[in-house]
Amino acid sequence: MLLLDSRGREYLTTLTLGKVFHTHLGQVPHEQIIGLEEASRLVTHAGRPFLVLRPTLAQYVMKMRRDSTIVYPKDVGAILVHGDIYPGATVIEAGAGSGALSLALLRAVGPTGRVITYELRDDMAQRTRRNIASLLGEPPNFTLKLQDIYQGIDEPGVDRIVLDLPEPWQVVPHAATALRQGGIFVGYVPTVLQMHHLAQTLTGDSRFELVDSFEIMHRGWHLAETSARPDHRMVAHTGFITTAVRCAPRPARAQPVTAAPEDAAADSGREAGAGADGGAGSGPEATEE
């Protein structure tokens, strides 16, 4: 459960009979929390109020125990949407870390899908297992393999491949073989050079098209009765996301199909509007959005 104090500070705890939740604001026996309706209120022995919630996935991954940097919720959401992770999909993941992305993938594919995770380090694999078990139990559709994905992918005809690795470009030839036609490749890396190398490798493989790279920035806002301003702190750069679609191989001389920038269509639209009278145009079509 997630307990919030009056200042919005969050405390993640696993409820166990006989244990006590301790904080500088007082103590609460777990028995006092077990059985409460979600979003109930309670007070500690010192009279300090707390709100009791079931943690969202975003709250859980930010508070769970971890041995490595996690994929932040803002990036997880983009990976799920741009990677088109859907119920029933079979997803290969590599680089389990502490399990944040594994949890999101399991929720997205649902009970009819499968998540197969490759991890090289046993300590990371064990941390992932514990974090998943703490939130979801032991999902029967989750497989964690202590195996180097750089050496190959065992499963054929998979729907999606999602990589959080130092050198994801090493997996591109294996991914092209393992993905079904129409499947989607997703890579997550922290630096520009890694992103560039991955995108170039995907573009150079005739079996991948629509290579696209981007990052997500998340800025909160402080809203009070008499003011509205951006928060002083924000979650800016955390990683780059690169996606590509597994297609039929290109003919030898064909050019790769790239994902068009969103502003290209807007620019062409403005140029078309200006061309009608030879000038810049003064109507709504000529104004910048």
What does this 3D model show about the protein?
- The chain is of the alpha/beta class.
- It has 2 domains: 2-54, Vcp-like ATPase, Chain A, domain 2, CATH 3.10.330.20; 59-258, Rossmann fold, CATH 3.40.50.150.
- It has helices spanning 30-33, 57-63, 73-82, 100-109, 122-136, 172-178, 192-204, 262-275; strands at 2-4, 10-12, 20-23, 26-29, 40-43, 49-53, 90-94, 114-119, 142-146, 158-163, 179-189, 208-215, 221-224, 227-230, 240-246.
- The strands form 4 sheets. A 7-stranded mixed sheet has the order 9-8-7-10-11-15-12, sandwiched between helices.
What's the helix and strand layout?
Elements lengths: L1 E3 L5 E3 L7 E4 L2 E4 H4 L6 E4 L5 E5 L3 H7 L9 H10 L7 E5 L5 H10 L4 E6 L2 H15 L5 E5 L11 E6 L8 H7 E11 L2 H13 L3 E8 L5 E4 L2 E4 L9 E7 L15 H14 L14
Parallel strand pairs: 7-8, 7-10, 8-9, 10-11
Antiparallel strand pairs: 1-2, 1-6, 3-4, 5-6, 11-15, 12-15, 13-14
Q: Detail the poorly predicted runs.
A: 274-289
What's the CATH C level of the largest domain? Alpha Beta
Largest sheet: 7 strands, mixed
Please state the overall shape, judged from the principal axes of the Cα atoms.
Answer: globular
Structural class determined from secondary elements: alpha/beta
The amount of beta strand, in percent, is 25-35%
The tally of domains stands at 2
Instruction: Return the average pLDDT rounded to an integer.
Output: 91
How would you concisely characterize the structure shown here?
This protein is of the alpha/beta class and 289 residues long.
Descriptors:
Rossmann fold; disordered C terminus; Vcp-like ATPase, Chain A, domain 2; alpha/beta; 7-stranded mixed beta sheet; single chain; 2 domains; 289 residues
